Amino acid sequence: MKEYVDLYDNFRNKTGKVIERRDIVPKGLFRLIIHVLIFDKKGRLLIQKRTKSKRSWPNRWDLTVSGAVSSGETSQISASRELFEELGIKYDFSNSYPNISINTGFRIDDVYIIKNKDINLKKLKLQEEEVSDAKFVNLKQLLEIIDRGEFVPYQKDYINLLFYLRDNTNLFENY
């Protein structure tokens, strides 16, 4: 089944153009990606292991949930859908704004952070074709997984930023 994504201009306005999910984004346009990060009460991040059959970065660990925003969806709808599809967790993002939105050159990454969430790993419903395992890790453990080449190739600075944002989501509160 083919999946399609909307294209956006540099002001995050939909252009009316749609491409297939795996197609190259035309220069000057962007596609929308979501990341959901779940941290438990100990400050550890829930990460998932991609299946051996995944097309990109098979058998590597990844953030809690990541995915392309399908055509016609909002970032919030996609975050809820992906979290439920991949891990069986219901969460309503309809009144949420991303904790951070990053322009990576040809895509806009919306990152949603859920803090202090107790998750029973045994009760997760892993999407068989996408996820083979899940576990909680602290920052040190995650950086070690990255050093061993067992994680999707995010920059360590990005991972450090995500952990920083876990505790500092109101950076301009007193501004």
Automatic annotation (TrEMBL):
GO terms for molecular function: hydrolase activity. CDD domains: NUDIX_Hydrolase. PROSITE patterns: NUDIX. It comes from the Bacteria. Keywords: Hydrolase. InterPro entries: NUDIX_hydrolase-like_dom_sf, NUDIX_hydrolase_dom. SUPFAM superfamilies: Nudix (SSF55811). Residues 29-159 form the Nudix hydrolase domain. This is Hydrolase, NUDIX family. It comes from Anaerococcus hydrogenalis ACS-025-V-Sch4.
